[in-house]
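Record ATP synthase protein I, 132 aa.
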Amino acid sequence: MKIRNKTPLHRLAVFPLLLTQLAVAVLAATVGWLWKGPVAGYSTLLGGMIALVPNLYFTYKAFRYFGARSVDAIVQSFWSGEMGKLILTAALFALVFAGVERLNVAALFVGYGLVLGTSACSLLLVKGFPKH
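=>
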């Protein structure tokens, strides 16, 4: 039996982490823009978005079901969410490398790494978030 989770995205416990990732991407892009110029700024933002958009997809897929009776659906959702996240990340990198003419590759990977680092530190960040 699959019990569908009807909680909207902004009410999930992971939503503050997604907002933190967005803030890190925008802040890093602003710093890159001011420090190295506009190309570094939008390259950093693109790198942050390459990390954030697949995380949004994973969140959508992973939290579709809940409850002990839905364990098979939950495992399947996590699996498909992770596979989709990996494919989406590769596609976004390919799209950026093929489609963006002026690109600062180092800034792109800095933005990507900072947002991924935010994910890696999520246990430290989520500790202080309010419970729903």
